[in-house]
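Quiz preparation item.
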């Protein structure tokens, strides 16, 4: 595993509580590393490390393109439990305890503000509040009436992105647009509400039958099989469950004309992105369209308002990416990757110019 691009990676163990965690601070060019804490049952430490490294790199890109003064980082808590059949990891077998949360808060504090923690899978807002009694470097807890639960905020960002996508597909508004939502959790359900209110026709899938029943009742949604959600006969598919939903096979066969959802790491491999491009299927890069939550958490940490204006930026960024992809023939995923590199390179240049000796700076 190549880790040379990381600012700092730390594995911590606490004998008293049995708590184990890895903190991965990827790139601090733009500011302290902002990213969630994922609490999950991993088969071994290598799997946990691979997960946190992948997620931390993703946060660098997400924060850079959301125009936030934060670098990328993430942490994972290795929880007890075992993977579901066919999965490499799974949900914890018990809830996190208060002493564990206090220790987690102390570890975050030890990083001296280089890492700012928010929620991710397996952590609740109330867990962050408890950890936050030991450190000021947690966010997404509704401090000073700002931010709070990022799920509905992420949903608003995805909704904003779907509007842009719909226009590109020739829908002047969302009335009649057919959208399949895969995963009806905190983001998926809130997204369904917004889409339904805007007149879209919904097809939904979740492994939890009660959530599907609720979406049918509240939004008149049609239920579709979990296994075939990505292949639903709709205009737009919104993956809002787990990553890796867009495989080469899915990209080759899906009837939908666009993919726009909240799940992280939707594209299973670069070939899948190329296949989408070849078939003319529009892809809204996940870390751009799902940035609503991190924008909210970042502003909360900075004590700033202005979420509504910032979330509109998601739509503008997608427009730029779709235009550039069309002009260059590259996949949207590749265009977003190049854009991230440009943002980081220009921040590095600015910083170096700022630190250059006065004489040199004046010549430049
Ligand atoms: P969540 O845990 O609240 O919901 C996930 C839902 O997906 C659950 O209802 C679960 O039953 C369902 N699900 C799991 N496997 C499924 C499958 N194979 N098919 C269909 N449904 C399945 O999570 P969330 O907070 O709503 O986040 C959804 C996705 O968006 C995740 O990938 C998350 O990493 C990403 N994301 C979330 C946020 C946020 O603010 N919550 C921000 C950025 C990205």
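Solution:
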């Amino acid at each position: 595993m190549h880790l040379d691009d990381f600012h700092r990676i730390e594995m911590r163990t606490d004998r008293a509580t049995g708590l184990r965690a890895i903190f991965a601070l990827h790139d601090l060019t733009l500011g302290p590393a902002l990213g969630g804490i994922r609490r999950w049952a991993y088969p071994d430490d290598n799997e946990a490390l691979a997960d946190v490294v992948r997620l931390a790199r993703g946060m660098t890109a997400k924060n850079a393109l959301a125009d936030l003064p934060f670098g990328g980082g993430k942490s994972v808590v290795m929880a007890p439990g075992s993977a579901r059949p066919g999965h490499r990891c799974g949900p914890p077998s018990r809830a996190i305890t208060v002493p564990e949360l206090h220790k987690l808060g102390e570890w975050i504090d030890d990083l001296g503000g280089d890492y700012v923690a928010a929620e991710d899978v397996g952590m609740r807002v109330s867990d962050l509040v408890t950890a936050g009694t030991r450190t000021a470097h947690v966010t997404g807890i509704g401090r000073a009436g700002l931010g709070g639960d990022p799920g509905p905020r992420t949903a608003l960002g995805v909704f904003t992105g779907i509007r842009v996508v719909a226009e590109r597909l020739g829908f002047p508004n969302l009335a009649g647009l057919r959208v399949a939502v895969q995963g009806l959790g905190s983001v998926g359900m809130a997204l369904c509400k917004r889409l339904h209110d805007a007149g879209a026709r919904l097809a939904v899938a979740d492994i939890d039958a009660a959530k599907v029943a609720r979406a049918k009742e509240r939004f008149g949604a049609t239920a579709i099989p979990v296994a075939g959600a990505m292949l639903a006969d709709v205009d737009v598919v919104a993956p809002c469950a787990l990553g890796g939903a867009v495989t080469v096979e899915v990209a080759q066969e899906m009837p939908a004309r666009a993919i726009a959802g909240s799940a992280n790491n939707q594209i299973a491999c670069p070939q899948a992105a190329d296949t989408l491009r070849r078939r003319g299927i529009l892809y809204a890069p996940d870390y751009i369209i799902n940035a609503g939550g991190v924008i909210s958490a970042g502003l909360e940490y900075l004590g700033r308002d202005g979420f509504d204006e910032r979330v509109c930026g998601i739509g503008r960024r997608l427009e730029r990416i779709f235009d550039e992809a069309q002009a260059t023939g590259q996949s949207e995923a590749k265009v977003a990757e190049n854009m991230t590199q440009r943002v980081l390179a220009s921040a590095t240049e600015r910083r170096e110019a700022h630190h250059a000796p006065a004489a040199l700076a004046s010549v430049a």
